[in-house]
Amino acid sequence: MIQKPLIIHPDSRVIYVVEALDKTGKISQRLIQYADLIQAPEQIHTYVLSPYALWTAKAKGISSEELIDFLEENSQNSIPEKLKQEIRKDMEHFGSLTFLIKEDYLILRAETVELIQKIKGLDSIRGKLIPTEDPNILMFLLRYRREIKKVLFEHNLFVKDAIYEWGDELDMRVIPQSLHKYQLLAINHYLNHHHQAGGGGTIIMPPNSGKMIVGLKDNGSIKNIDFNYCRR
C-alpha cells in the first residue's frame, strides 16, 4: 500500500507533509499555493490553511474544489466536513470587498449589506465613517486607507485594492542573466496574478535569495518605476 504524504489535523486547519513521502517536493510546492508554511524541520513540515492564504489562492484563479480535490488525493486521512466548509467560505470571500476612489474619498464597496453592517460595527472603523445613503458602501477620508485595510485584515476581511496608481513609465531593460528556477517562478507568479488583486502585489522570499533581481525583472516587464524593496 502506497502511503500518501499529507496528514490533515482533525480539529484545525493544520496540514503536515511527511518529507519521506514527498521526495520530489512536488506536493509541498503545490501546497504552498494554498497554505502558509509554519515549520520546516526534517521529516515533517507544518502548513496552515489560513484565511488569507486561501483568499490569495482564489486571487490566482484556484477554486475551492480544486484545493479540496488535491487534499483528498494526497492525504492519508479524510478531510473533515467542517474544514471543507471553511475552505469554501474563505475562498468565496475573494472579491466581496473592494476599495475605490471618488475624488478625495475612499470607498469600500461590499457585495452584501450584511457585510457592510459587520464592518460598521468594528470599533476602529466606526469613528472614521462618512455618512452615505448607499447601503452597499462605506466612505472614509482617503488618508485612512492603510489603517482601514489593516483593521479589516485583523478581522480576516480582505480587500481587493483596485486603487493602485501606476508610477511613471520607465523604459528599462535588465541585462540577461541566468536565474534560479524559484526566481523565475516568483517573477511569473507576480506577472500572471498581480492584476487580479488590484494591480499591486508582494513578493516574499528568504534572505539572500535574490529579491532585488526578481523585483527588477518584474519592473523590466511592466516598464514601471514603482518598486519598494523591504528587508526584515
From TrEMBL:
<dbReference type="GO" id="GO:0005524">
    <property type="term" value="F:ATP binding"/>
</dbReference>
<dbReference type="InterPro" id="IPR032830">
    <property type="entry name" value="XPB/Ssl2_N"/>
</dbReference>
<keyword id="KW-0547">Nucleotide-binding</keyword>
<dbReference type="InterPro" id="IPR050615">
    <property type="entry name" value="ATP-dep_DNA_Helicase"/>
</dbReference>
<protein>
    <recommendedName>
        <fullName>Helicase XPB/Ssl2 N-terminal domain-containing protein</fullName>
    </recommendedName>
</protein>
<dbReference type="GO" id="GO:0016787">
    <property type="term" value="F:hydrolase activity"/>
</dbReference>
<dbReference type="Pfam" id="PF13625">
    <property type="entry name" value="Helicase_C_3"/>
</dbReference>
<keyword id="KW-0347">Helicase</keyword>
<feature type="domain" description="Helicase XPB/Ssl2 N-terminal">
    <location>
        <begin position="6"/>
        <end position="120"/>
    </location>
</feature>
<keyword id="KW-0067">ATP-binding</keyword>
<dbReference type="GO" id="GO:0004386">
    <property type="term" value="F:helicase activity"/>
</dbReference>
<keyword id="KW-0378">Hydrolase</keyword>
